[in-house]
Amino acid sequence: MIRALTVALTFALAACAAAPPPIHLTEEWPSQPGDYDTVTQSWTRSATLHAEYQEVFTLAATFKSPAWRAAHAQRDAEHRGLAGGERDQRLAQAQAEVAGPYEVELLLTTYERRENDLDKGKKSVWRVVLVDDAGKEIEPLEIVRDKRPGPTVHAEFPAFGDFTTPYIARFPRTSPVLGANVKQLRLRMSGERGSVELAWQAAT
User: Fold this and answer.
1) One pLDDT digit (tens) per residue for the chain, 204 residues
2) CB-CB contact of 147 with 165 (8 Å)
3) 130, 137 in Cβ contact below 8 A?
4) Residue 25, CA distances (Å) to 45, 67, 180 in order
C-alpha cells in the first residue's frame, strides 16, 4: 500500500513539474547577451533512467547554442574585469566558436561507476547521438571528459553534483540542428539497459 502511494505521488509530482521553456533554435547571434543563469537553465535538459526498480543514471545536457555562448562570454568578461576592446574581443571569440562543431556539456551520474564511460567512444556501454528535426541521427565526433576542477564545472553548470562526471560532446555539422524553421532538437542516450531522450522545443 505504501509503495503504491509512493509511486502515485511520484507520477503526480512529475505531472505537476514545469515543462522546459520553449527557446529559439536558430543560429542567430543575440543582439544582447542574456542573463547567464537564465540562459543556461533554458538550454539544459535532464532525465533519469530506471531499470528493475534501480536508478541506472541521471543525465543533464546543456546545448551550447549561440545564446548560451554569448551569455557565457559576457559573464566571463565580467568575472575577469574585461571592458572596452577586451570585452568585445572575448565576445567575438565566442561568436567565432559558433561556427565549429555543435557542442553539448553532458553531466552523467551512474549507479554503477563502470557504466560512466562516455569517453570510451565505440567501446562505451552507451550510445549518444543528436537527432535533427527530420529524425536523422548525428554521431559525435568525440566525447571527452571535462577535466576542469569540480567547483569550476559547477560554477558553469549548476546541475553538476558530487558524483557526476562531466563530458564535452562534439557533433559535426553534417546536418543542421539549428535554423529558422527547426521545431525540435533531441539528444538520445541508449544502451542495453534502456534509453532516454532529451528535447529542446522551439518557441512558436
Assistant:
1) 433 333 333 333 333 445 667 799 999 999 999 999 999 999 999 999 998 778 999 999 999 999 999 999 999 999 999 999 999 999 999 999 999 999 999 999 999 999 999 999 999 999 999 999 999 999 999 999 999 999 999 999 999 998 999 999 999 999 889 998 999 999 999 999 999 999 999 987
2) no
3) yes
4) 14, 10, 7
**Contact predicate 109/57, CB 8 Å:** yes
Residues forming beta bridges with residue 108, ordered by sequence position: 59, 165
Q: Which three cell numbers stand for residue 2?
A: 505504501
- Tell me the pTM: 0.88
**CA 190 to CA 21: how far, in whole Å?**
25
Count the alpha carbons within 13 Å of 19 in the hemisphere toward its beta carbon.
8
- Given a contact cutoff of 8 angstroms between Cβ atoms, the answer to whether 59 and 107 are in contact is yes
Q: 52: phi > 0 → left, psi -120 to 50 → alpha, else beta; which?
A: left
Minimal CA–CA distance to 196: which of 80, 109, 134? 109
The amino acid at residue 50 is H
How many helices (H) and strands (E) would you count in the chain?
Answer: 5, 9
